[in-house]
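User: Is it possible to get a 3D structure for a protein together with its bound compound? The compound here is pyridoxal-5'-phosphate. I've pasted both below.
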Amino acid sequence: MKIKMNENFKAFKDNYLFVECAKRIADFQAANPDAKVIKLSIGDVTRPLPKVAIDALNVAVEEQAHAETFRGYAPESGYDFTRQAVADYYTRRGAKIEASEVFISDGAKSDCGNVLDILGNNKVYVPDPVYPVYVDTNIMKGNEIAYLPGTLENGFAPMPTDEIEEGSVIYICSPNNPTGSVYNREQLTEWVNFANERGCLIIFDSAYEAFVSGDNPRSIFEIEGARTCAVEICSLSKTAGFTGTRCGWMILAHELEAAGMNLNATWSRRQSTRFNGVPYIIQRAAAAALSEDGIKVCMENIEYYKSNAKKLSEFLTSKGYKFTGGTNSPYIWMQTKDNMPSWGFFDLLLNEAQIAGTPGVGFGSQGEGFFRITSFGKAEDYDEAIRRLERIL
Ligand SMILES: *Cc1c(COP(=O)(O)O)cnc(C)c1O
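Assistant: Yes, that's possible. Here is the predicted structure of the complex:
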């Protein structure tokens, strides 16, 4: 053909990390058919949907069976009841949001990429290590990408520096995937003030907000000044186990303006052109999960994962290992044994303890010498994993 292509795709590196992990695990399993490999690499939830969501789904399915209650196309930005349920969820936690600032979507990953549709070709800053979606969506768009190094010294929570250019876009993920680090109120205030002074936009990914405890902010809208410099992307994937059910949202405050354009109005225009809404039955389940009673039930699953993380954290602490995460996050980001390279440590755990995790270097160059383990598995697996790790760490 003689058509032009989006040649930005040529700049992609192969999706090497998870493919290579899966290959090494499969090779090990083939050579050791009796070995029971414990996967502490799971990046997906494993607990079932909370009953409130299932009940709401069942009622909504039945409604779809009758002409009087049947619903076709949903409003592109979400049903009012869902937008209000999200706004109420935030307001209960001290972040004042209006329903008209909430846009319901099929998940946070889509929004992370789609939001670039309404932005021009800005310079973007992402943390290193990083959730690969921020990098890859900006590669597709042909944007210049710069990295903000996370280190043991800054607790993998990089802070503003003078090198960040005016009018750029900054990605913040807190609690962070992969490092489990969380920004406290002071740090996030510093970021918001910085963005307002420099005319920057913060894209705040709060996918793991439900894991936050204590006074740490769960939304950037808990910070004064965020309404003029930030959009927030979140979903029920981790909060309510919706990874396969799919419902998320993006929040754009009415005050956000750039280039004489209102971001909320522009996003609304984009959605009405390119999106036909999240299914009615899913939005009913989402609204039920977000209700005060619904969230209480969701938190039982979050506590289940957190108790897995706590066991591992206590064990690693007793062994003198340095790590971030484990308290406000399902992730633990640990230093490898004797500062081994990440892949060497992967092989050591797999061969000597039949445990799989994820090599930190796969998330960025600053991840070398670190390793990600997750708490999304079964509680009994963590007891067994610790018994095995006891021998080799
Ligand atoms: C899991 C995750 C999400 C959620 O993605 P969905 O598309 O809503 O399932 C968003 N951001 C990060 C960093 C994640 O790890």
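The pocket of pyridoxal-5'-phosphate is lined by residues 107-109, 131, 173, 177, 205, 207, 235, 237-238, 243, 248 (CB under 6 Å). Residues 292-318 form the longest helix (27 residues).
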